[in-house]
Write the structure tokens for this entry.
Amino acid sequence: MDTQNPSVQPHAQTRTTGKNHPHRNVPAGGVIHDNSRHTTRFTVIGNHLAQHPQLSGLAIGLAVHIQSLPTGARADIKTLAARFPEGPTRIAAALRELETHGYLRRTRERTATGRIVTRTVSCNQPGRHANASEHRDATEPGDASDDAPDSDDAPQPPAARRAGPPAKPPARRAAEQRKKPPRRALPAVPQPAYTSPALLQTAIDLLAGLRREDPRLLLSATDAEHLAPGVAAWLERDLTPTAVRHALTTDLPPEPLYRPAALLAHRLTAQLPPLPPYRAPESPPSVKHPLRNCDGCDTAFRSPEPGTRCRNCTERQARPPALTAV
């Protein structure tokens, strides 16, 4: 019973099932996957990104590259332009696409040394962080619903995966808009001692022309009206408009100016020059009239008009005649 017969024909192999058959039901020209399991150095990418119907190929490629980077790696436009053949303009446009669809968040932060840097956050599932926050706010601590899986983790049909993340309902969008912090008010600016319409108009014209010095200094009408008194306070300190314009536009930071009006308000306040020293008004210079000859005694004297008499002849003529005794 235990003797093996080497002449026995081998048993027929089990036919590969239809699901795993590599060439079954594949249309002519269709893609065929030759996959092998990754065990190291791999990144998980969702189909909502890889098959996004609105993102460009460059945007999808940059999103995959950024998600594969380690934490702390640089992902700014200059670094990406040095890594890929596309130029900075195309890369900047692709990054804006990712921001629009929630795959990227970029915020400006000020370091302890005062330098402004860009903080880049890569999101592998847009909207998941916001949805989780709203879910936690709606339930009390310790509620069993906190441990429930997120709806994004549930299996979705292929059509839903290709369509990307679902659109937020109007009620949720309205709630998010209400949560946005209000626009911060501009810092106060110096006020002039004496306001006049002509001085304020000169200040507004100066502010409106700053964009010719630097396009980033484009101001709205509301911001110009807020800053005009500060410029007027500089002008009344015996400064010319050219000197004020130079003080406001010199040594600007190279980074983008998200609030140019706030920067100008700070400079108007921090760099306000002192009042000029008091000077007593000078007396008007004396006027010297030309020399003329008196018509009465032919004496030379100074007079504004010809044909006049000197002071002696004028007094003698005005004196009454003396009375003589009979």
